[in-house]
Every structure is written in C-alpha cells, then in structure tokens.
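Below: protein 1.
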Amino acid sequence: MNGPTWLLQADPILLSALREDISSEDVTTNAVMPTAIPGTVDLLCKEEGVIAGLPIFARVFALLDPEVKVTFFCQEGDAVSKGQRLAVVQGDIRVLLSGERVALNFLQRMSGIATYTRAVADRLNGARTKLLDTRKTTPNLRLLEKYAVRVGGGHNHRFNLSDGVLLKDNHIAAAGGVKEAVAMAKAYAPFVRKIEVEVENLDMVRQAVEAGADIIMLDNMTHEEMKEALSLIQGRAETECSGNMTLDNVAALADLGVDYISCGALTHSAPILDLSLKNLRRV
C-alpha cells in the first residue's frame, strides 16, 4: 500500500470527507478571504508519537488545489515529539483554511493508530510472534487504518471478507460443528485460501486439528489453556491468539510462541495523535 496507486484508491474517501465538511462553500473563509492570496502554515506536533498519513495529509490539499505545495521535515513512521515542526503547507490561503480540518483529522487518526501499534509491537520485541490488526475498523476508513498499522510496525490480517476463510463461533454453529465447518470450507473455498478456525476450548482445538485447519485461533483462553492448546496442536497448524488483547496484557503472551496475536484495539481504541496547523502567514 505504497505509492501513487494507494493514494488513488484513497481519493474517494478523501473527497467524501471534503464534501461532508464543505457542502456548498466555506462561509467563514470566503468572508475573510474574498480573493486568492498566497500564504503558508506550519504543521506542528503537540505530543510524542509516531507519524503516519503524510501522503494523505498532502493529498487532501491537492484535491482542493493541485498548486498547493507541502514540504515535510519528517518521514512516514518517524517518532515525533512535542513542539516539532513536521511540515509547511504553501498555497492559496483559502485552500489552507478550508482543507485544514479534514487533512488534520486523517493525519491525527492514522498517527494515533501507528503510535498505539508501535507501543504494542514494542511489548513483543524479541518474540517470534507477529502482531496483527482485525476488521474492527471505522466504516469506510479501513484502507487508511490498516495502512497506519503497518506504518506502526504491525501486520495486516485479512482486509475484508473476500480475502480468506475465518470460521468464527457463529459460522461453526451454522455449520453444525468445527469439523463440519472446516469440511464445508475446504469444499467451497479455492485451494489457495487458508482456512482459519476460531476455538474457545481444548475440545474445539482437537476438532480443528483433526479437521485439518490451516490456522487455529485461540480466542479468549487463559494463558494456561493456550499453553495446553499449543501442546495439542504440535505445529500441525499455525496459531493465533485473540480476545481483548491490549497494550496492558500483550507482553504476557510473548513467551507462548504463537505465530500471531490479533489486536482489535490497534484500530478501535487508539487515541489520536494531537497535531495542529499554526502560524498562518501571508507571503
């Protein structure tokens, strides 16, 4: 998700946000700036964190006016600190004013996710386990939020329901059991698709192994239950643990040796990174 192709995929999201904020005109800006006057404004960081979404920030202004120039003094994934000048935006002051909030909203949200992800990933430092996100994302913002997870040092789970088979509790109930669900998935899904099964107890673990699941997700199990589950699996499937994984408890799981830890909190609970556009001046 790098480069111009990704930015073009994001355009409909950004245009929708701009239309939401400017339904007909920016009344305030048009009142105080009736004509085009060139100017600059600084992007400032107000707290420590990890920056993510710089291409999106710049793209918002470009969609309003391709002549706007953004000069960055940092790169994606950089650690940033309070008071740091991250960029200067130069162009028609009317565009700087009208695009300010939308550009900041995206950048703050994405940087907040990258910051939280980096903190969780650091708790797993040295472990073989990969940190994954989930589909617990803001509707219509998944592209940007999952990108921010990657910038923060995490990895993406499936992007959407078309990406892979994940048999959760309700799928298993609908199919009539773990073995039945896996058999039906194998019969239906293309052979290149891995089949993952969510299990909640050791009996389900045994069934998933016997059914030939490719990945077994240990959901909301205790530490001891997960250790016993891994002994039962014995490397016959990849393993993932999930269920209320947060910055506070993920380090305790590093010793298990699971392949993946999925953490919905990366996207549904990350606070924004506080940023602002200040020091607007005519040039």
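Below: protein 2.
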Amino acid sequence: MLMVLLRAAILFLTAVLVIRMMDKRQVSQLQPFELVIAIMIAELAATPMEDVGTPLLYGVAPMLTLLVLHSALSLLSLKSQRLRAFISGKPSILVKQGVVQEKELRRICYDLNDLLEELRAGGILNPAEVGTAILETSGKMSVFPRAQSRPVTPEDMQLPAAYEGIPLTLVLDGEVQHHNLRIGGLDEAWLQAKLSEFGFSGPGDVLLASLDTRGVLLAQGKGSQPRLRVAQALAPEKVGW
C-alpha cells in the first residue's frame, strides 16, 4: 500500500510540474494542441497509478516528452504565422457590424443558441446591442457592443481621468506583505500608524488591507463582525507604482 501511495504522489507531482512548466495559459485558455497534451498527461499519469506492475518510468518519461513537444510547438508557433494558424486555428467573426454571420456559423457548426448564450455570458441580453462578436481560438467568445450601446467614458465627455493601476495588498490574513510595501515606497511603521488610526492594534487584527493608486487605504478586520475602514491615506501625487 505504501508503494502505491508513493507512486501516486510521484506521478501527481510530475504532472503538476509539467503543467506548471507549460506556462499559465495551459491552465486557463487552452489551445487545441494544449488540450490534447493535457488529456494525454492525465492518461499517462493514470495508467502507472492503477497498475503497480507498470514501471513508473513509463508514465514519467512520456510526460516529460510531451513537455518538450509543447515547448517546441510553442516556439515554432512564435516563428511562423502559418504554423500557428494550422496548430491553433484562427478566430471566427460571428457577428460583424451587428449582423450575424450565418455562413461562418455553419462552417464551424456553431448554432444560434450557443451564440446567444455566449452573448449573455458577455453581459449583453439584447442581440441588437452587439457590434462585433469573435470566437477566439481558445473557444472563448469576445463580445463588443455597438458604439451607441457602450457606457459613456470620460474620453467621450472630454474629461481628464486619473491614472488607475493595480492596488497593493499590504496585509493578507494578518501577515504584512513586505514586498508590496517596498514597491509603494512605504514601511511597516507607516502601515502600523494608519491601522492604528482605523482602530486596529496591529496587522494581526486585519484580514485584508490594500492601497489603491488614488492613495485610498482599505482595511477589513477579522472576526464574525469585521470592521471595514476606508480613508485617504496617501496623496495621489505620491503614488509611485
């Protein structure tokens, strides 16, 4: 039994390592050849795991071979547009200038119910509001509303807009994120002072604290009735990330 558990652990770790080394896209949006590789890795890991008589190397070696093959195909795809189109396919425009492309739907065997479902998933209930819809090579639908149906932006109203970037997480489940403090040019003493102003004794009482690019600090305490505090903690002109 111990040998079975050990083999399962080795195969599991090998499969995770191979998938991880195939980059993050392998986990989120699979291209057709990546989907095939993912399925094959699962099969290669399952066979030696089920049959103790099968040498462990018969599962590990093919998985490493698939890793090399994936890297080679990815590199070749970067070098050749034609090869990339052959391996991964091309995006399909299903709605163009508000008109459903019936011929393209038939070519890829994509029915109207599938199209309407993806439009709803993209936040559009009325097909008349769609300007362009593209089925990407990963199978994900990119939906763009008509210009008349899009929300008004500051640019449309000729208004200046401040920079908006990724907020820095300063405290996560009671632990200070020192790396993010350094990115923001801050220190733990500054953080302690701000948390004290919010009524917290220290980072250990905080579930989450983040600082956005407007200089606004959000802090939520721990417990069944957590306190939530939001205040301007840094001048916008001092934001440096």
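The beta strands are 92-96, 99-100, 130-135, 141-145, 168-172, 175-176, 206-211, 216-221, 228-232.
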